[in-house]
Design a protein that fits this description.
Rossmann fold; Arc Repressor Mutant, subunit A; 2 domains
């Protein structure tokens, strides 16, 4: 079965080049959609439900980081691999925190890109030579530490808390997660009780400190 991929980049020539490279030489990878903006990337992903999205980090109408967050919330089964010209630790960390599973430079070889796609689709961690390897390792360590705490938030509570830390309102969280505002309010109350916080501001500070934004 082919790995279904969406390519999101604002440069048509680059999108066409990636399609040609992967289509000609990687028989197990199929390009099922393209996007030129962040918003279009989210829409195409929701429509095609690909296994992997190759996402440029800087695009118009919602950049790659914002698009990754939306895809993670709306299409949690789809994995996102950032594809960028920027070998910048800050961009790598922001991508990982948003939910991207790997970060590949556009200068990398076709073989390297294809392998990153396969690893992402199969749920494997980045290869040890990936510039995201150490970031993901650190995030996994934080997750394991958080799971040992007595209060243990549920997966949905982690999602709600992450949105709180990003500054979203209850209504925006409800729309992003596809649940009711009342359900969001219930989750917020449970979160505050479990982490011993009195308000959303304290919860947001706690989330950033504990690394929940990247969980």
């Amino acid at each position: 079965m082919s790995i279904r991929v969406v390519v999101a980049d604002d440069h048509e020539v680059l999108r066409r080049g990636i399609k040609m490279l992967l289509a000609d030489d990687e028989n197990d990878i199929e390009i099922v959609g393209e996007a030129a903006t962040g918003e279009e990337a989210v829409a195409v992903t929701e429509e095609t439900k690909p296994d992997v999205v190759l996402m440029d980090i800087r695009m118009p109408e919602g950049d790659g980081i914002q698009a990754v967050r939306s895809i993670r919330d709306r299409c949690p089964e789809t994995k996102v691999v950032m594809l960028s010209t920027y070998d910048n630790p800050t961009y790598v960390a922001r991508s990982a925190t948003a939910g991207a599973v790997d970060y590949v430079l556009k200068e990398n070889s076709r073989e390297y890109l294809a392998e990153a796609i396969r690893r992402a689709a199969s749920g494997q961690d980045p290869s040890t030579d990936s510039i995201m390897y150490d970031v993901k390792k650190s995030m996994n360590s934080r997750r394991e530490r958080l799971e040992k705490k007595d209060f243990l938030l549920t997966h949905r509570e982690y999602q709600v808390l992450r949105h709180i830390a990003l500054g979203l309102s209850n209504k925006e969280i409800a729309e992003s997660l596809g649940i009711s505002v009342e359900t969001v309010k219930e989750h917020v109350q449970n979160i505050l009780r479990k982490i011993n916080a009195t308000d959303r501001t304290q919860a947001a500070v706690w989330a950033v400190k504990e690394g929940v934004v990247g969980v």
